[in-house]
Specification:
30% of the residues lie in helices and 23% in strands. The protein is an alpha+beta fold and 581 residues long. The strands form ten sheets. Strands 11, 12, 13, 14, 16, 20, 21 and 24 form an eight-stranded mixed beta sheet that branches. Strands 4-5-3-9 form a four-stranded antiparallel beta sheet. Strands 2-6-7 form a three-stranded antiparallel beta sheet, with no helix packed on it.
Length: 581
């Protein structure tokens, strides 16, 4: 009886941090976990000065503000994000009382224990769950709690209720076509004849430089542009060399370096997909050479909340591991520009996880890193079902909907450029509309009136911010030529543009652009407005008889954002006096 009373007392004084009403669709409990099974968990602690950091980041990123460009050091950012000593000690002592040793890294506490202890600590019931389509079992619980007196000292603990599993990559490649030898020969012959003339049937480095008015050659000294690789994709040295020889001879001999994160590898002989990573490195180089290029190869998979379009196995990228690694680096080791061509549905990512990751992107912006992401390849959405109530609703993407990344949509054609049908965009379900985009986005909302108003939150962050070509890029992959399409192509192109702008600023002794969005919306005239074409989606949802579409319009729109780069104008805005030559 006494033990029962203690159990009820414990439950009554514990706050439920997260809970699922049932096992997610497609998952089955295989067995209860053994009390001795090992489990590693991470607790995020509240940051003391999160609001002040956000304000400071806006100030150093807004042109005209006295603090513009005064980026922070690692230690300055950590001073903002540090939890209180009381929060740290209370959580560490709570764990220690159960014999659990922990490791503290500013606002994160990592600990490894056994299932029995984790169940007791978290009022949880960890079990092994299996997804119906295979993959390895996952150790998860349907709910977890912390003592009431600790609830104010913990933001989240994960992985706990985060069901996820290994699965297909979720890069934002829309389509990949491997060319037959005779097609490849014909393509090379046409390219040799047409040189920089853009042909929508295939996009080349020369075409992009011509289309976007890029004539500037940066100095490699002190500059660095990076891209992130996940899910066992590795860029290949030999493919980059072939690409340079065939399409960027002026960059012949330039290679990229690799940093391994969270068990990531650099397997140059892997039989797995490499199209995404090769696309990234080849088109970052195509635009920004000779700026040095770094690949971050990150291992592991992030948490997933199963939805209609991403029912599992998990293919979410391990952003937390990568970003905490990056933010631990010395200031001199950080790139000025970072591209990522991966994403998923915003609603498939747990809200507390999504908000924490967005906060980490904000910290990178504080330290002077420009972070760009592909917007996604599903237009307004695929199934267009809101999982919380099964209602028809557009599907924003993550992390493109985070206001602290620059989201890049896609175009095709050249005379004129048009929005391409797969380019994702819309309005976040998590993040309110930032002040820096209010004028541009509200003008679009005024234009469309009540169209689709039931299917998105017009008060929230609109994306993408900008766009670039995204259809039929020539890539060398595993020794063969291929044509790739997707906002996966658009992000490295715009990233290369930003890398050149940051290099130009460095040549004048100016700081890098850092968090880009306030500067972009303040200099929208330096972008080419895309006013034709549309994105489409929701075709399988009966609420949309003929599917749904966002149209490209004058000004900002949720397909191409503010538009595509005019490098000469962007250079004049970012580094006045530097010649585009």
């Amino acid at each position: 009886m006494r033990s029962l009373l203690l159990l009820f007392a414990s439950a009554a004084t514990a706050k439920v941090m997260d809970s699922l009403s049932s096992v997610p669709k497609g998952w089955t409990e295989v067995r209860q976990a053994s009390p001795d099974d090992s489990i590693t968990l991470r607790a995020a602690l509240p940051q003391q000065h999160a609001a002040a950091l956000e304000q400071a980041v806006l100030e150093i990123s807004t042109p005209g503000h006295p603090n513009y460009g005064l980026h922070m050091s690692r230690d300055q950012v950590r001073a903002y994000t540090a939890p209180t000593e009381q929060s740290v000690s209370s959580v560490v002592n709570w764990l220690a009382e159960s014999g659990v040793k922990s490791s503290v890294n500013n606002d994160w506490i990592t600990f490894t224990t056994n299932v029995k202890t984790a169940n007791d600590l978290l009022n949880a019931n960890f079990a092994w769950y299996q997804y119906e389509k295979g993959g390895s079992p996952k150790l998860r619980t349907l709910s977890y709690s912390v003592p009431d007196e600790l609830a104010g000292n913990i933001d989240l603990i994960q992985p706990t209720t985060r069901f996820g599993q290994l699965g297909a990559k979720r890069s934002t490649i829309f389509e990949m076509q491997i060319l037959e030898p005779e097609e490849e020969d014909a393509l090379k012959a046409n390219i040799a004849i047409q040189a920089a003339n853009c042909n929508p049937s295939r996009i080349t480095p020369d075409c992009l430089k011509s289309l976007y008015n890029i004539k500037y050659t940066a100095s490699p000294d002190g500059n660095l542009v990076a891209f992130a690789s996940y899910l066992e994709e590795y860029a290949r040295y030999s493919d980059l060399q072939s690409f340079e020889t065939q399409y960027v001879p002026q960059a012949a001999g330039q290679n990229f370096s690799v940093q391994l994160v969270n068990g990531g590898l650099n397997d140059q002989t892997s039989s797995d997909d490499s199209g995404e990573a090769n696309l990234d490195v080849q088109y970052v180089l195509a635009v920004s050479n000779p700026v040095p290029i770094l690949e971050y190869s990150t291992g592991g998979r992030g948490p997933l909340v199963p939805t209609h379009d991403e029912p599992g196995p998990s293919s979410n990228e391990p952003y937390l591991e990568f970003l905490t690694y990056l933010l631990d680096q010395e200031d001199s080791a950080l790139p000025q520009t970072l591209s990522t061509s991966y994403g998923e549905e915003e609603q498939s990512v747990p809200e507390d996880y999504a908000l924490k990751v967005c906060n980490l992107f904000m910290q990178l912006g504080a330290r002077g890193v420009s972070v760009l992401f592909s917007s996604g390849d599903s237009g307004p959405g695929d199934s267009c079902i809101r999982e919380s109530d099964q209602a028809p609703y557009f599907q924003p993407t993550f992390p493109a909907g985070c206001p602290y990344v620059t989201s890049v949509g896609a175009t095709y054609n050249v005379e004129p450029e048009q929005a391409v049908s797969f380019s994702s965009g819309g309005f976040s379900s998590l993040h309110p509309q930032p002040a820096w985009q209010a004028d541009a986005v509200n003008a679009y909302l005024d234009l469309i009136g009540d169209t689709y108003s039931a299917y998105f939150n017009k008060s929230n962050r609109g994306f993408p911010d900008v766009a670039a070509q995204g259809s039929r890029f020539i890539v060398i992959d595993k020794g063969s030529s291929a044509l790739l399409s997707g906002t996966s192509a658009s992000s490295p192109v715009f990233t290369g543009v930003v890398a050149l702008l940051n290099a130009a600023r460095k040549s004048q002794g100016q700081p890098p652009l850092g968090f880009l969005n306030p500067w972009l919306y303040n200099n929208s005239a330096a972008l080419t407005d895309i006013t034709s074409g549309y994105s489409s989606g929701c075709s399988g949802n009966s609420a949309f008889r003929n599917g749904a579409r966002w149209n490209a319009t004058t000004g900002w729109d949720p397909v191409t954002g503010l538009g595509t780069p005019d490098f000469g104008k962007l250079l004049a805005a970012a580094a006045p006096g530097v010649v585009n030559a």
